[in-house]
Write a structure and sequence with these properties.
483 residues; five-stranded mixed barrel; 33% helix; OB fold (Dihydrolipoamide Acetyltransferase, E2P); 14 helices; BirA Bifunctional Protein, domain 2; 2 domains; RNA-binding
Length: 483
Amino acid sequence: MSEPNTLTAVRLAKRAELAAAGLRPYGAAFPVSGDVGEVRASFAEGRKVAAAGRVTARRDMGKSHFLDISDHSGRLQVYLQDKALGEEGVRIYELLDIGDFVGVEGECFTTKTGEPSIKAEKFVLLSKSLHPLPEKWHGLQDVEARHRQRYLDLISNEHARAVFAKRFAIIREIRSFFEERGFLEVETPMMQAVAGGAAATPFETHHNALGMDLFLRIAPELYLKRLLVGGFTKVFELNRNFRNEGVSRRHNPEFTMLEAYWAYADFEMMAQLVEDLVCRVAERVCGGLKIEHTDAEGRVTRVINLSRPWRRARYRDLVEEAEPGWFARDVSGRRNRAVELGLDISHCLEDYEVTQHVFEKLVEEKTIDPCFVTHCPKELIPLAKTNPEDPAVLDVFELVMNGQEIAPGYSELNDPVVQRERLVEQSGGEQHKIDEEFLQALEYGMPPAGGMGMGIDRLIMLLTGADSIREVILFPHLKPKAE
RNA sequence: GGGUUGGUAGCUCAAUGGUAGAGCAGCGCCCUUUUAAGGCGUUGGUUGUGGGUUCGAGUCCCACCCGACCCA
């Protein structure tokens, strides 16, 4: 903590004075009738209740006082009269600050302005706060402070509370969706000897006792597939992945990923599953399939329509639709056209990568309503089956909506010989990047299966209208602030 | 990593290169149904950090720290 300013000094003095008077400034257990919101919801004239919360406003009227106490669930008014408080209670009240936690017991009553309130008969201090809270009307505005001191954001900004309440409701719904469909939630290693299952730079760490380097996982995929080998038929994992890459509006070094694998299914069944999942979550948590994003003034800036059935279209057709004649050009023609389109095309890019740039810019960024992009070129993904009719493309989808990739799904590659070839190709000769133990598992036989992954933070951005991933992660990555 | 932009009281914000201010919060009084309560009075600043230009810098210049937005 920095040098106490005068406001903190005043509060420290009050703390000392309370302690000296035997009025414990940090309280004890205080049984309550419920959270503040629950007490308010169960309000009944004359009922005796006990409630506790943080003081977020006080209004003095001579010898009577009003306090607002708050927690995550809402706000409730407390009415105090010096006469009813007694000497000790009055002393506590005199030394009270906005931000302190208090406990009250008393009767429910409605003031003449119609505000449900508790008329306090007992009033105790539960925790003394040593710092002033953000301004009561504007809340905490400073973006950096909102992320660095998220607790202050949660105390003072209703919108932040609502976004995170929604986040955790969404995650709960996802779990119950999979459980109802017979999927088992499992846990696989976060620390892996080979960081497989995706193309990304991992974080490195070191195991001292074993003298070995380990990587934080970039995906759980290769372990979940081992479970299919082991006889599980429907599994999912909903937890953190780590990627040692840039931080941006859409990227946090650690992020929440859902992956699910379904034996004997394929990518089309997975697409249906994903559509069912997202629609159910939207209906239960967002109240419908039309998701409106608004700006700070409440104007609607974007509407995402999740109405079914969702569009399904082939990768090649979407590129051709966005840029007619694209595939009629030759390799250098495509490269030149991409430069004309204002794309940053470096000389070392392969032809399929040039097309991928066009896809990202002209298709992905402009796709707001959900679209399953299917049959992507096989160079992009090493872990999926090729299409039986066209070996240049894969039996996969990439779900795009809100201008972002949200969820890939595959008919999972289960031929160990082909899988080895594809991984060797992808590794660019770096043998240590190949998970030999995964390949060995595949050699024992993995059933044909459908698999899917979903970036949960991006899904939550979509469903809450957040324009930055930092708005949906409680404690986003920030550089430490120098003293 | 590059470009643009920001950092002023605990918080929200002002301040042509010319005495750093307001509201909230705090402190002191008044007020027994208020709710952004109200009334009177009042404290609080190394203007992110370090240099420079200038008679004079919150303001202009340079470097650095921490953000935001855009690009890679």
